[in-house]
Amino acid sequence: MCWHLVTVPARFNRLGRSRDGYMTGMPLDAQPPRRRGTVGHPYSPLNLRLVLATFGLVTSIAFAVLLFRAHLPLPAWAFVVLAAVAAVDLVVVQLRRRARGGHHSLFE
Questions:
Q1: How high is the pLDDT of residue 78?
Q2: What keywords is this UniProt entry annotated with (predicted)?
Q3: Helix ranges restricted to H, the chain
Q4: In the chain, N or C: fewer CB atoms in 10 Å?
Q5: In terms of pTM, does the model score above 0.85?
Q6: Tens digits of residue pLDDT in 39-58
Q7: Rounded to whole angstroms, how far apart are CA atoms 86 and 61?
Q8: Structural domain boundaries in the chain
Q9: Which of the four pLDDT bands, split at 50, 70 and 90, describes residue 7?
Q10: What is each CA distance from 12 to 4, 9, 27, in whole angstroms?
């Protein structure tokens, strides 16, 4: 694999700033400015993951029940497996939230 350097137009200086002073492209810092967390201790959105895992569990169970009632066992078992994965994810997220400490409100 060969990497080539991209030539920068003359209107940009070596820091990636245009003549107007605005940055070009995405910043390549460890984390965007004014965000919680540091490089050593990154912020993890466990509450969002908890909500999404719960949604996945509920919808997977609902679709599995509907497919079993429609006499379609193969896709129904696939949704049972997805529900099991979502349940395991719920347990892992809750364990990580408890290990993080503090209060355990969903709206932190």
A1: 98
A2: Membrane, Transmembrane, Transmembrane helix
A3: 46-69, 73-100
A4: N
A5: no
A6: 566 566 888 899 999 999 99
A7: 10
A8: 46-99
A9: low
A10: 19, 6, 15
